[in-house]
Amino acid sequence: MEYSDYLSGAENPSFLEKIENVAGFSYEAETNFLGGWPDDQNKVRRVIFLLQRTVQEALRLSNFHNQSRLETRRFTDGIEFQYGDPDYGFTFSLDGRGILRITRRSSSARQFHEWYRRFMPSLPSIVMESIDAIDEELTGFNREEAIRDQNKDKNRPRVIQVERASYNFRVAIKTPPENQYSGTSIPNIRVLNHSLLRRVPSANGTLTDPLSVEPDEFGRATYQVTRWRDPGKKLEMYQVSGPSDSEWTMLFFDFSYVGDTYVPAKGKRLAFDQTSFVTGAETSEAYLGFFRKRAVGGFMHGVLEKESGMGTTMNFSTPPSW
Length: 322
Hints:
By secondary structure, this protein is of the alpha+beta class. About 30% of the residues lie in helices and about 25% in strands.
């Protein structure tokens, strides 16, 4: 999908077009591995080679054409691959707790879109091949070994699997300066007060209008809600924070699309299903359905609506880096 199609396919293209930068992205998969990083240097080198091969194949399929910018480093309890391309850069890491992370720094929304649509289709392969490397190289048990019943015709089943995974997006918004908001010197709180933040603790703990509080008394105001979404009970997290730095002009929106154990109000707890969440379909849904449609087009648009209540949006900017 080209970026122009990404914009035109949104419910509110004119608003989405104003989101010119994505302040950060990460994907995190938590496995049930508890063995720690090995001391055996031969085994470490083999794991590095297996993961390097996996990342290089993803780069090839992405048509990034710059594999010389891929570097690796070993740290105390894990390994990290850094792809230093100026347009498509990212970091992939695996630590001794079996947590896999893919992170990307702030970039333009257009560059992020190009990176995501080219690289993230390889995500399921990266995750599953990394799990195989952990399972075969770090558990201490070869999968070709006979299982307990000594049936040599069978490999042992995979022990390591994903227990939780999440797609995490951040967008930073710079609100108009205070001189455009008569009567308040905390412009980001003014925005939140219009849509979400009605009362805050006063100096004596009683609830009061946030615009009546002295700016120096505030540190940060944060609103966060999580909700479960069918089918498959995906957890969605919506958060916006207004910190005091930068003269109360910044708003940070954080969104997460999570596969996790579902704990209902009544009834049985439902286990996380690795086979249904670590898929290309969920990679697409996390970006197009969750981030574009519900997080930006729904939540952010609602928060940033102009105080007039006429359905138009206030003037704001998305800083190129934060």
